[in-house]
């Protein structure tokens, strides 16, 4: 029971999904996929810097969760600036195999809830799909339109053999369930993962990670 003393505190951020529709057993907020395709991307932390003027980019969240947890804590504080950019690839709160499944569901919900709210406030959205082991297939594809564009991040997800195998299996399920026309990839795009999808006619758009760019600068 919510007492009158606390009924003005929206600690669950219910306002994010006031106008949302839901899909699946876990009721993930639905996201309508933009018809636009990014030509440039910028991380949230860089986009929110005072000196940033790179507004022809799409904002991405393929960085440590600590760099964008503030967005969840106070979404309204960042809405105005996010509207200056071409669009947003939806947030990427992490799913780890050693994380309780309840937390993985919660982080997936947070990704969708923020994306749905941005969309209802006029921001173009491309859904990021974050999957993990087989358990996450129950909810990680819910609320995402089929035959459209999706985004995935490979940075930090395919370096180790086990991680790479989990990623490959998840990508198989993504293509099976969502039949995307385009997959945007942030990070490495090795042929032994992505070539089969290129051969099927899926458009693979690659953006190099900030980490990879910085390593090139160091070795140049």
List key phrases describing it.
three-stranded parallel sheet, alpha/beta, 9 strands, 220 residues, 7 helices
Topology:
Layout: E1 22-23, E2 28-29, E3 41-43, H1 44-47, E4 58-60, H2 69-73, H3 76-82, E5 87-89, H4 101-120, E6 125-126, E7 149-153, H5 161-178, E8 182-186, H6 191-199, E9 203-207, H7 210-219
Parallel strand pairs: 3-4, 4-5, 5-6, 7-8, 8-9
Antiparallel strand pairs: 1-2
Textual characterization of the structure:
- There is one protein chain.
- Strand 1 and strand 2 form a beta hairpin.
- This protein is globular.
- The mean pLDDT is 93.
- The strands form 3 sheets. A 4-stranded parallel sheet has the order 3-4-5-6. A 3-stranded parallel sheet has the order 7-8-9, covered by helices on one side. Strands 1-2 form a two-stranded antiparallel ribbon.
- It has 220 residues and is of the alpha/beta class.
- The chain is 33% helix and 14% strand.
- It has one domain (20-219).
Compact description:
This protein has 220 residues and is α/β, with parallel strands linked by helices. The protein is built from seven helices and nine strands; from the N terminus they run βββαβααβαββαβαβα.
